[in-house]
Amino acid sequence: MDAASEGDRGGLRMENIIEIKGLVKRFGDKTAVDGLDLSVRKGELFGFLGPNGAGKTTTLRCVSTLTGFDSGSIVVAGFDLLKNPAEAKSRMGVIQQQVSLDKDLTIRENMISHAMYHDIGKAERNKRIKELSDFFGLEEYLDKPVDSLSGGWKKRAAIVCTMLHHPEVLFLDEPTSGLDINARRLLWDVIKNLNDDGTTIILTTHYIEEAEALCDRVGIIDKGKIIALDDPQSLCERVGKVAVECHSGGKTDYRYFKSREEANTYASSLEGDVSIRATNLEDVFVEMTGKSVGGQK
Amino acid sequence: MSNLLTETYHVAWGDLMFFKHNFWNILVMSVMSPLLYLIAFGYGLRSGQTDIGVSYVAFVIPGIAALSSLSSSFSSTATRMNVQRLYYRSFDEMMMCPLSLPAIVLGKSVLGLLRGMLSCFLIYFLGLFLAPELVLSPLVIICILLACMVFSMLGMMAALLAKSHQSMATLNSLLILPMTFLCGTFFSVSSLNPVFQAILYCMPLTHASEIIRASALPDYLDFPWMSLVVLVAFGIAFFAIDLYLLKTRKV
Ligand SMILES: Nc1ncnc2c1ncn2[C@@H]1O[C@H](COP(=O)(O)OP(=O)(O)OP(=O)(O)O)[C@@H](O)[C@H]1O
Ligand SMILES: [Mg+2]
Question: What backbone phi and psi angles, to 5 degrees, belong to A277?
Fold first, then answer.
C-alpha cells in the first residue's frame, strides 16, 4: 500500500475495524435499518443476533456494498465505504446467507474466478486454493460442478472463495444454518481458527448456543436498531443471572433475578413445576426482543 | 488502460469457461434460428431481384446477421446475468470485489459479444456461398462486432432493470421481437411511409442492419456513415446507462 492511502486510514493503529454510525436503510416506506450504530474491534469475534426481519442481513449487505444506504456512515479498516469502496472491499470477505456460487462452473473455477476478481496472481492463487481446500477437505470436489455437492460442502467452498484474498474482516450471515451437527462443529473450529489467526469475524446466527460458544461480544438487533451489546456474560447479568421457570396452566413463565437467594424466595412462593437455573443468552434474547414477536412475551 | 483490459478479462473469465463448457450446445443454438430465418424468408417466401439489383437472398443475409447480433448477444448477456443475479447470486459476489465498474460492464458483455459473433459469422459465411454478391471485408467484421457489442450492453441493461425472469420475457416480446422483424432486416426501411420510417430509425437495430448490409454489398449500396455514428452513440449510451445502473443498484 502506498503512503497516501495509508494516510487515509486516519492513524495507523485502529481500535475499531468496523465503525457504523447512524445507518439507515429503507425499502420504500419500510425502514429495515433504523439509525444503527455499531463498532467492532479488531480481532474480535462478534455475533449479531435478532429475530427474523430485524435487519441483520440488510446491515451486512450495506457494509458489504451490495446495497446502498439512505444515511449514516460505514468505515471498514479505516476506509470510508463511500469514499474508498475498493480499498474497503479488498479488506473484507462476505459469506452470504444463501450459497452464492456460480452453478455453471466447477468449484475450482469458482475459486479461480474469485481470485481473479481480487487480482491475485496465478502462482499465489493456486497455492491459496490448494492450501484452503486441503484444510476444508475439498480436494476431491474441486473439479465437480457446484450442484453435485451438498449444502454444507457448498458452504465450505464458498468460504474458501471468500478467504482467498486474506480478508481482515469476515462477515458470515447465518453460516451454519442447514448444516448437520458435524459440519457445524467443523465450521465453528474453522471460525475460531481464523479468528485466532487475527481475522475479525462478524457473524449472524439464530443459534444461541453458537453465539455463546463463539462470540466475544454479542449485539442484539431488533427492528433495525441495536438494543443490547455486550459480552454474553454481562448480557446475562443485565437481565439477571438466575432464571426461574414456572410451568403451570399449560404455559411457562420466566422471571430473572440478580441472586440465587432472591430467586429462591420467589420460587418458594410459586405453585406448579418450578425450576431454577443460570440465565443463558436465549433468555436474554427472548427478554429483550420477545415483546415484538407476536406482541407478547 | 491495460489495467482495464486485465480487469475486464478477469470479470469475463467465468463466462468464458461457461462458453467453453457449453460450446457444442451454443454452436447448435447459434446456427439454428438464423438458418430457419434464411430458409423461411430467403427461400420460402420470396425470390428474384430486389430494387437495389441483388438477389433477395443476398439482401436478406446481412439482415439476418443483424438480427442475430441482436437476438443472440442480447439474450445471452441478459439471460446469463439474470441467472447470476437472481438465482446463483454470484453476481453479488463479484460486486463485493474491488473491480471497477467499466470493467464489469465490458467483462459481462464479452459472452454476448462472442455468441453474437458466432451466430453472425456462421450465417454470414454460409451466405458467402449462397450469394456471390456478398463480400467479406474488414468493414463487415467491424460492423458486426459493433452491433454485437451494442446489443450485448443492451442485454445487460435489461438484466439490471428486470425485477424477475418474467419481466425479461415481457421485454423480449414487446421490444426485442418487433425490432427483430421490422428494423430493416427482411425488407428495406426506405420502402415504408415516412412516419413508420422515423420510428424505425429510432431503433438501434435499423442502423445495425443498414451498416451491415451496406458493408456487405459495397457495389450496390453507399455506406451510411451516419448510421455507424448513431450506432456508436447507442453503444456509448448503453454503456453509460449500465454504469449508472450498477452504481445506483438498489436491491
Ligand atoms: N429487497 C428488499 N425489499 C424490500 N424489503 C426488504 C428487502 N430486503 C429486506 N427487506 C425487509 O427488511 C427487513 C429486514 O430484513 P433482513 O433480511 O435484514 O432481516 P434479517 O434480520 O436478516 O432476518 P432473517 O433472520 O430472517 O434472515 C425485513 O422486514 C424485510 O422484509
Ligand atoms: Mg438474514
Answer: -155, 175
CB atoms within 10 A of CB A10: 10
pLDDT tens-digit readout, A41-92: 999 999 999 889 999 999 999 998 888 899 999 999 999 999 999 999 999 9
Assigned C-alpha cell, B110:
464479452
How far apart CA B96 and CA B90 sit, in angstroms, is 10
Question: A94, B96: Cβ pair inside 8 Å?
Answer: yes
3-state DSSP assignment of residue A281: helix
Contact (CB<8Å) A94/B10? no
Say what the pLDDT of residue B45 is: 63
Domain ranges of chain B: 2-247
Can you give the three-state secondary structure of A5-56, one letter per residue?
A: HHHHCCCCCCCEEEEEEEEEEEECCEEEEEEEEEEEECCCEEEEECCCCCCH
Task: Determine the 3-state secondary structure of A278 from DSSP.
Answer: strand
From the list B65, B6, B77, the residue with the least C-alpha distance to B33 is B65
- Residue A251 β-bridge partners: A248
SS3 for A171-183, per residue? EEECCCCCCCHHH
All cell numbers assigned to B58: 443476398
Atom number in ligand 1 closest to CA B251: 1
pTM (predicted TM-score)? 0.87
Tell me the C-alpha distance between A173 and A183, whole Å: 16
- Between β-strands A79-80 and A71-76, what pairing exists: parallel, antiparallel or unpaired? antiparallel
Chain-wide mean pLDDT for chain A? 86
Whole-angstrom Cα distance, residue A9 to residue A78?
A: 4
Do the Cβ atoms of B147 and B212 come closer than 8 Å?
yes
Ligand 2 center from residue A220 Cα (angstroms): 13
Looking only at the bridges linking them, the beta strands covering A169-173 and A200-204 are parallel
The amino acid at residue A94 is V
- What structural domains and CATH numbers belong to chain A? 43-65+89-231 (3.40.50.300), 235-289 (no CATH)
Q: What is the complex's ipTM, to 2 decimals?
A: 0.91
Contacts of A29 (CB under 8 A, 6+ apart): none
Measured CA distances, B222 to A192, B189, B214 (Å): 71, 15, 6
- Give the Cα separation of A44 and A92 in Å (integer): 14
Residue A248 phi, psi (nearest 5): -155, 150
Q: Is B164 exposed, middle or buried (0-12, 13-18, 19+ CB in 10 A)?
A: exposed
Flag if A109 and B99 touch (Cβ within 8 Å): no
Residue B147 near residue B231, CB atoms below 8 Å: yes
Name the residue among B18, B93, B98 with its Cβ closest to that of A104: B18
Q: Which residues on adjacent β-strands are paired with residue A36? A: A23
